[in-house]
């Protein structure tokens, strides 16, 4: 128990100031604007990274694009249902 308290006392103070400094900019338009397209952009980068070295000459090469198509299809199909069940976000 003492070791956990000592670890927290040594670790927490150097990590707290950056988070405290980020609180005011989060409310600004500079941070709000990129937060809208960024999740889709990150997903595109991940998909390209995962599929870039796909050996298209091999028979098993169809599995990753098929999985991608199923995932995208499910997201498009269930998009409205997921939005309806998620808590409302404040508009701004």
Number of helices: 4
Query: Which spans of ≥5 residues are poorly predicted at pLDDT below 50?
Result: none
| Helical content band | over 70%
Q: What are the secondary-structure elements, in order, as H or E?
A: HHHH
Q: In angstroms, what separates the terminal alpha carbons?
A: 45 Å
- Beta fraction: under 5%
Global outline = elongated
Average pLDDT rating: 78
Which structural class do you get from the secondary structure elements? mainly alpha
What does this structure look like?
- The protein has 92 residues and is mainly alpha-helical.
- Helix content is 72%, strand content 0%.
- It contains 4 helices and no strands.
- It has helices at 2-26, 29-32, 38-51, 63-85.
- The longest helix is centred in the first third of the chain and has 25 residues, at 2-26.
- The protein is elongated, with a radius of gyration of 21 Å.
- It starts with a helix and ends in a 7-residue tail after the last helix.
- The model has no long low-confidence stretch (mean pLDDT 78).
């Amino acid at each position: 128990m003492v070791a956990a308290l000592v670890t927290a006392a040594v670790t927490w103070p150097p990590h707290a100031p950056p988070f405290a400094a980020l609180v005011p900019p989060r409310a600004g338009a500079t941070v709000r604007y990129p937060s809208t397209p960024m999740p889709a952009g990150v997903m595109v980068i991940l998909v390209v990274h995962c599929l870039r070295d796909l050996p298209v000459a091999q028979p098993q090469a169809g599995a990753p694009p098929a999985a991608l198509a199923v995932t995208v299809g499910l997201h498009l199909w269930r998009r409205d249902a997921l939005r309806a069940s998620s808590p409302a976000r404040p508009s701004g």
